[in-house]
Amino acid sequence: MDKISAEKRIAELSELLEEHNYKYYVLDNPDISDYDFDMLMNELKQLESDFPELILPSSPTQRVGGMALNTFEKVQHTVQMASLQDVFDFEQVQNFLDKCGNELVSPEYTIEPKIDGLSVSLEYTDGILTRASTRGDGFTGEDVTANIKTIRSVPLKLKNAPEFLEVRGEVYMPKSSFLELTEQQELKGEQAFRNPRNAAAGSLRQKDPKVTAARKLDIFIFNIQQCRGRDFSKHSETLDYLKELGFRTVSYIVCHTYEEIESEINSIGTQRTGLAYDIDGAVVKVNSLKQRDIMGSTSKTPKWAVAYKYPPEEKQTRLIDIEVNVGRTGAITPVAVFEPIILAGTSVSRAVLHNQDFINEKDIRIGDIVTVRKAGDIIPEVLNSVSHGENSETFKLPEVCPVCGTRCVREDDESVLRCPNVECPAQLLKNMIHFASKNAMDIDGLGDANMKLLVDSGLVKSPADLYTLHKDQLTSLERFAEKSAENLIKAIQDSKGRGLDRLIYALGIRNVGQRGAVLLCEKFHDMESLLRAEKENISDIEGFGDIMAESVVRSLREPHRIELINRLREYGVNMTYDKKSTNDERFKGKTFVLTGTLPTMKRDDAKKLIESFGGKVSGSVSKKTDYVVAGEEAGSKLVKAQTLGVAVISEADLMELVK
Asked: What is the pLDDT of residue 485?
């Protein structure tokens, strides 16, 4: 095909694919099969490969592409992305309406669901998406254009668009995507996100757009920030116009009286449990744009709108049992099993009780009446014990592992009880998944399902067994055809060349995350040197303390781990480190706040890590805070961060930022 014909066909395919994207992701009404869509996409990819000079920024192929970012550039918002004033009862709603009635003539209002996500700005020049940014502090955000493009319901090109358009929307993670993600995190022994909003925030700020794409985010557009070449008189008109342009917009209804508004707020509250996404309130806005100008704004919030926040739903039920599960690191986790109740629209009968200290603090016993709610309307949690059952007894976690019978241990500095038996069947699968994971040995094609198949078949009983696999063994399993077996064998062989820091992280040494593995390698450049190192040598490393040093020494001298390392060396796995430059100030000018208990790091170690990259760690959250790193039992700092719109990330997200 010649260049002129290719350019014409690329334009046709791009328009056709975006139309099908719109029908599938916005209208939820596809009219072609996934296979047909993929065939069109493959044709476009081939043409763009043949004629790379014809690739446009708005091409459907560019939704996930480009290089991963080291930093996110600052964006100054021309129009402030203000937050809303929250109200928590109908008396406060009435007070708001009274103020509007005193200043305005016959005001009308729009009522919209308040999507619980991360606020962003999208800018279009001549109909092309040119920039997307986070809200930040309302005045300054961060450029996340590459990651926003991975959201399929975001149009990359608008038809009949104005000269310039800036819209505001809310990026969120659907409930189904959130549950899928947290199940994967728990299976891999990672700290799971606490709620969909935090998951959306962490996912949107991934340096690699491919990671963001895998998180299956979505967006609702709810406002026009700027529009050149088109005038509007009402907010409802802007939403209708945005819908015509192809945006996925929030639903709304126009009301005039308090009674209508109260009824609609209650109606949205009733519907929210059945929605595929989280909402945490209903927004009441003056509809007339001129009347909004009359009402004005404070430095933080508009006076013409309020957000009614729904209280979390709580119910009482009887605790039937406390089950005990064993995780990847041997952690013994108690799980409450209670009589099923309906919370946030779904039946709930289980909730994690964390550890013995949590059970003791709440005095939770089998047979109790307990109060349960869903954190973020998703994750069930037991709040307290209302009353003890007759003849109830204080619950104690078992002294021996419920799976292998090994006596459990609890370190002096931990609240977690553990099974120390590394050959415990409950730990094997999760350890294997961790070893092959992206941030460890990164064995492509060896996801959770395939790893479970290998373990269940008995082909692998140790990470070293992966390097003994051959094609015939794999093709004997139902999930592997000849080509997929060859690809996996190649991926396993390729993993032998990973850096020593990846291998150390893959070994699953307690308290040693990705950054800790790098720090070890920067002092001990090969495995032999590390194996000979004493506690005192390791504790001298900046970012390490006595506890981490002791954990490294003890772990690397355990017979099973020595045997594993020797086998990996025998099979040709890399045992040396290619030292990289450490003159990295990627966090320069950034302020972090640490809150809650992090899964693998002490707060002091996290502080040293952030400071080693030029960042600052503060003890309080403010508008100037860039990130709040939240762990288990995060308290008021997390709430304040969410109120101010500060990015909330997990320890895993922090480690992604320093990769």
From this structure: 93
Alpha helices in 314-390 (DSSP H): 356-362
Pairwise CA distance, residues 93 & 264, whole Å: 12
> Does 361 share its domain with 463?
no
Instruction: Give CA–CA dist 515/422, Å, rounded.
Output: 24
Place of tokens 């937050």: 83
Burial classification of residue 65, based on how many CB atoms lie within 10 Å of its CB (0-12 exposed, 13-18 middle, 19 or more buried): middle
d(CA 113, CA 284): 9
Indicate the SS3 state at residue 211.
helix
- Domain of 104 in residue numbering reads as 74-309
Q: Provide the CATH number for the domain around residue 531.
A: 1.10.150.20
Best CA proximity match to 577, nearest among 655, 522, 532: 522
Q: What's the pLDDT tens digit per position in 322-372?
A: 999 888 778 899 999 999 987 766 678 999 898 899 999 999 999 999 999
Give the active site residue among 99, 114, 396, 430. Answer: 114
**535 carries an active-site annotation:** no
- Give the integer Cα–Cα distance in Å for 170 and 118: 5
Question: For residue 436, what pLDDT is reported?
Answer: 93
Q: Tell me the C-alpha distance between 551 and 544, whole Å.
A: 11
Residue 300 sits in the same domain as residue 323: no
Compute the distance between CA of residue 649 and CA of residue 659 in angstroms, rounded to an integer. Answer: 15
Which candidate, 85, 87, 80, places its Cα nearest to that of 137?
80
The span from the CA of 117 to the CA of 128, in Å, is: 24
Following CA atoms 172, 173, 176, 179 in sequence, which dihedral angle do they give, to the nearest 10 degrees? -140
Residue 106 CB coordination number (10 Å): 8
For residue 314, give the H/E element and its range: strand 314-326
Residues 255 and 362 in one domain: no
Q: Whole-model pTM?
A: 0.56
Residues 6+ apart with CB under 8 A from 58: 14, 128, 129, 156, 157
Domain co-membership, 49 together with 137: no
Token pair of 401 as six digits: 């592992």
Answer yes or no: do 341 and 284 share one domain. Answer: no
Sign of CA dihedral 15, 19, 21, 26: positive
